[in-house]
Amino acid sequence: METRSIFIAVILSITSYIKAEDYKAPRLKTLATIEQECAGYLLLSNETLRSYIAASFPKDSTVQKLVHCFLVNMNAWDDETGIKDYVIRNYFKPSDTDSSYESRTQCCLRDKVSNLDRCAVFERAYHSFMCYYQNYGNLVPEAQFIPWYQVDREKNLREVFLIEGITRAQLLKFQKNEERTPKEYPILYYMDVIRNAFYDPSTGHDLGRLYTQYGIQELLADETRQCLDTVSRNFFEEPTRAYQGYDQCLRKYLTVYVEKLLQTVVAQVLESNIVC
Where found, per UniProt (predicted)? Predict the structure, then answer.
């Protein structure tokens, strides 16, 4: 994917339209790109990678290490807790007539993964991937959204504070949490969800990407979409529309994650003394 510098101009008096280039070109990767990147990291030739793919990823130590890289690269794996279903499933499309793909996959994970040693991370990752590869559905060739690691979310929010010119006094107010909704929150939220590709001013919140980030099933519920649609009909200007979507429809699912991120970054910035 072409890399380019992205600059967002935020004008508080004119918020009816912003080119959301962050939304259009976020962390999107095809499985083919992930495979190529990992082969490069591990110094494997294109010929070797093609042979592994043609043989449906035979079980050996090099392939296990390679597959572990695939899952880490797409942020679908945690060495402690294992496979992230809500991420890896984006790369497979079940047949319309297949009603048992999920049960087959989960049965495979129980049989092939659950009894493996916790420290055998390459073997656990390999068998986890193969359970999806062999049971969940056909591979999806299109690029999929890669969820952010926590360190990236923190970096993005620190930069939002700098862009908006948040002062030390304001950060201390956030830290004390004296107000449910400080007046600065809507614009900070708006910048943050755009920078993280969770929001497009023309279409609103992307619930698919939010689900891929957090794995909360309720984000995909019809009730959540209907709530956001109602907010969009009642609020026309940004950042109010974006923030009200969060406040009225998403807060009950995401508040723990959002507040933890906010307090973590506030403490980091205060400790660094980079703001006055």
Answer: Secreted
Q: How many CB atoms lie within 10 A of CB 244?
A: 18
**pLDDT of 68 higher than 90:** yes
Which pTM does this prediction carry? 0.87
HEC string of the chain equals CCCCCCCCCCCCCCCCCCCCHHHHCCCEECHHHHHHHHHHHCCCCHHHHHHHHHCCCCCCHHHHHHHHHHHHHCCCEECCCEECHHHHHHHEECCCCCCCHHHHHHHHHHHHCCCCCCCCHHHHHHHHHHHHHHHCCEECCCCEECCCCHHHHHHHHHHHHHHHCCCHHHHHHHHHCCCCCCCCHHHHHHHHHHHCCCEECCCEECHHHHHHHHCCHHHHCHHHHHHHHHHHHHCCCCCHHHHHHHHHHHHHHHHHHHHHHHHHHHHHHHHHCCCC
Torsion, Cα 224 93 23 149, to 10 degrees, reads 90
Structural domains of the chain in order of their starting residue, each with its CATH number: 28-145 (1.10.238.20), 150-271 (1.10.238.20)
Question: What does the alpha-carbon distance between residue 50 and residue 65 come to, in Å, rounded to a whole number?
Answer: 16
C-alpha separations of 89 from 129, 252, 261 in Å: 10, 25, 26
Q: 190 falls in which pLDDT band (50, 70, 90)?
A: very high
